Request: fold
Amino acid sequence: MRVWVDLTNTAHIYVLRPLVERLEQAGHDVEITARPLSQTVQALEAWGHPHIVVGRHGGAGRAGKARAAAGRVAALVRFARQRRFDCALAHGSTDLPVACRVFGIPNTTMFDYEWATTQLGLNCRLASRTLAPDAIPVERLARLGARGRKLVRYPGLKEEYYLHDFRADRGVLDELGLDPARVLCIVRTSPAYALYLGGRESAVLPRVLRRLADDERTQTVVIARTPEQSDTIDALGLERTVVPRRTVDARSLIALGDVVVSAGGTMNREAAVLGTPVWSIFDGRLGAVDELLMREGRLRMLRSPDDLELAKKPGGDGRPLRRRDPADLLQMALPWIEPDAGSG
Reply:
């Protein structure tokens, strides 16, 4: 069967990669389109999977996003017109469900943060199927148009599926010139370009970085989302603070790190799954997954940089604390896929 996968953000590559690999191992033909945002294209190039870059990101404002989305949908329609896809899959893409509706292609939209309501209200209503974690109450999902047979809820966190066979690579420490004897702190900047943040950067982030730099036991790696964020952090002139200008193995950094402070969602959840102490400085409305992790004590909100506990964490093997089979997620995501390509 011919399967179309659309990737609109860097994290979605890691979420969907094990599903793509299983599809291709079963003999299915998978084509990937990607929107250039953050390190999405760099991460795809590092993976080595063929892909076609389509469209652009429209910035943080509604008007710019609308113009970019209209242009990208039109480009995706042209891309798909002669390809005769059997089904399609995306995590958070607003463009794919619209393009699939034009051709009647069965498609699934995935997400795990329910308060991006403008985007999700469109996705859930246009997609054939909605796949979300069971931590999100059905009442919140119903308001987005995800209800009845269209809605499928998977157990656990998406990170437990795509990190199922993960092993940390200590080579990333040498690559970045890090001293493993120090308290390794991983910091993730805000997705300020997201509509639900409206271009707003984290006000507490510079204070966090200064707090870390003032403690001589620490070494900090900041995973920025944009060149502008990298420039701003470099301009602070902080000691023992590394801001990579290329895609790095952030999952290994999280697994080998001692402290994670993140203004985003995926890195928080990766840290929770990998057993690294994590504090959130997310400025948006908390989603149900983060609420669950907070109740379980696996995620803490950082109100003040002074609340950070800076210490080496107990040793571990750098593997997830809980693992789930991506094949189960694939079956829930694409029920139209036949058991093997030969039967299609």
Observations:
- DSSP finds 14 helices and 13 strands in the chain.
